């Protein structure tokens, strides 16, 4: 390598390093732009907004307000959907990864073809305390393979829950509670591969085969199945295998018999509700926040 080519190498490295430095400085000062959300996701969110009406009877929580009302499509800075109320984006990719529209006065059907299901990068979805007018939980839920948190509690869903929900292999928290019109068998999860830690099904009308549901479900920490339609009595002994349980609510089901001995196995339990002998004859009204 001659002098001049060596020199050239140095010069180009120098230029390169200045370029890299410049790039870093500029990139830093423009960070809010680099996380701008994607056009297809903006339009999916706006179509989602449009598929519901705002109805103040749809949410019961007193801090409720219409989060989607401030979403707008202006093609300026404020149309970066990452800064919209309830929307969370990935800092690097700009994809929408979280949607929290709990208690947002949303009222209307949610169909399997709703634009929501185009937000395929979602990891967290909270639609709790709205009124989906007795919609079924759409099978399109399978479009969210990265979903870890799903909260549809108290949102007027009905019918059977599609087995697709049990195929969400990253799901660690599922809350379907307080939808008294959810019926049919609750789908069985693959306990050996599912990371599900928290399962809330209280105040639903699911038929639950507890022994089948909890079979080898080592990951479960919280199980809320109060006021469901659990068929087994007495309680299955396999509950004693859920060694990581910290919260267990089985109240107001059709159990009878004695306090089961396997409970002594559940050493991490900090909350337990059985009410084995109490059966409410009348189903409670849908509780409100
Ligand atoms: C608002 O929702 C309630 C049910 O929660 C429904 O009975 C009522 O008709 C709705 N009103 C409008 C204007 O959609
Ligand atoms: C962006 O658009 C909104 C709604 O049209 C408007 O209120 C706001 O002033 C605009 N912001 C900028 C920085 O132009
Ligand atoms: C969702 O938003 C509500 C406020 O509307 C907040 O209280 C709640 O903690 C949020 N939940 C999640 C999971 O982000
Ligand atoms: C809610 O459901 C009722 C009964 O099916 C229907 O008449 C009404 O149009 C629905 N409202 C909305 C906003 O979807
Ligand atoms: C979405 O599905 C509903 C019923 O499931 C149907 O009425 C509607 O036309 C569909 N919309 C589109 C855009 O396909
Ligand atoms: C689901 O949302 C409701 C209403 O916001 C809240 O009370 C409940 O704690 C949430 N469930 C989970 C598992 O976060
Ligand atoms: C359950 O998960 C395990 C481990 O990933 C896998 O080997 C098995 O085939 C799965 N079973 C079903 C029924 O999907
Ligand atoms: C519970 O399931 C049985 C069928 O096994 C059904 O007859 C009954 O109506 C259900 N009860 C409730 C409260 O859903
Ligand atoms: C519950 O599931 C277990 C195991 O899969 C099965 O042996 C049992 O018959 C089921 N019980 C009912 C009532 O369906
Ligand atoms: C208690 O746990 C052990 C393993 O941790 C298990 O072998 C045993 O069957 C459990 N006992 C009951 C009653 O579930």
From TrEMBL:
The organism's place on the tree of life at top rank:
Eukaryota
Q: Does the keyword Mitochondrion apply?
A: no
**Secretion signal span:** 1-27
* Domain (Leucine-rich repeat-containing N-terminal plant-type): residue spans on this chain: 38-90
Q: Which InterPro entries match?
A: Leu-rich_rpt, LRR_dom_sf, LRR_N_plant-typ, RLP23-like
PANTHER family linked to this entry: DISEASE RESISTANCE LIKE PROTEIN, LEUCINE-RICH REPEAT RECEPTOR PROTEIN KINASE EMS1-LIKE-RELATED
Task: State the protein's name.
Answer: Leucine-rich repeat-containing N-terminal plant-type domain-containing protein
């Amino acid at each position: 390598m001659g002098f001049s080519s060596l020199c050239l190498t140095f010069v180009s490295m120098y230029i390169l390093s200045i370029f890299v430095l410049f790039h870093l400085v500029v990139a830093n000062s423009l960070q809010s732009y680099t996380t701008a959300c994607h056009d297809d996701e903006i339009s999916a969110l706006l179509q989602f907004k449009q598929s519901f009406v705002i109805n103040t009877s749809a949410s019961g929580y007193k801090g409720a307000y219409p989060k989607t009302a401030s979403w707008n499509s202006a093609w300026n800075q404020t149309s970066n959907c990452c800064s919209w109320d309830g929307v969370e984006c990935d800092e690097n990719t700009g994809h929408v990864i979280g949607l929290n529209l709990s208690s947002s006065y949303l009222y209307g059907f949610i169909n399997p073809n709703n634009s929501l299901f185009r937000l395929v990068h979602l990891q967290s979805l909270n639609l709790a305390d709205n009124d989906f007018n007795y919609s079924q939980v759409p099978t399109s839920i399978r479009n969210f393979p990265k979903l870890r948190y799903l909260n549809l509690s108290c949102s007027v869903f009905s019918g059977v829950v599609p087995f697709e929900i049990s195929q969400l292999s990253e799901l660690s928290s599922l809350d379907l509670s307080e939808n008294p019109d959810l019926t049919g068998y609750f789908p069985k999860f693959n306990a050996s591969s599912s990371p599900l830690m928290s399962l809330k099904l209280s105040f639903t009308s699911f038929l639950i085969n507890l022994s089948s549901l909890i079979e080898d479900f080592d990951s479960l920490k919280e199980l809320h199945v109060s006021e469901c339609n659990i068929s087994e009595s007495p309680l299955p002994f396999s509950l004693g295998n859920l060694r990581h349980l910290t919260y267990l609510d089985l109240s107001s089901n059709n159990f009878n018999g004695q306090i089961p001995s396997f409970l002594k196995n559940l050493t991490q339990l900090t909350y337990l509700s059985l009410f084995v002998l109490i059966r409410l004859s009348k189903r409670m009204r849908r509780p409100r926040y």
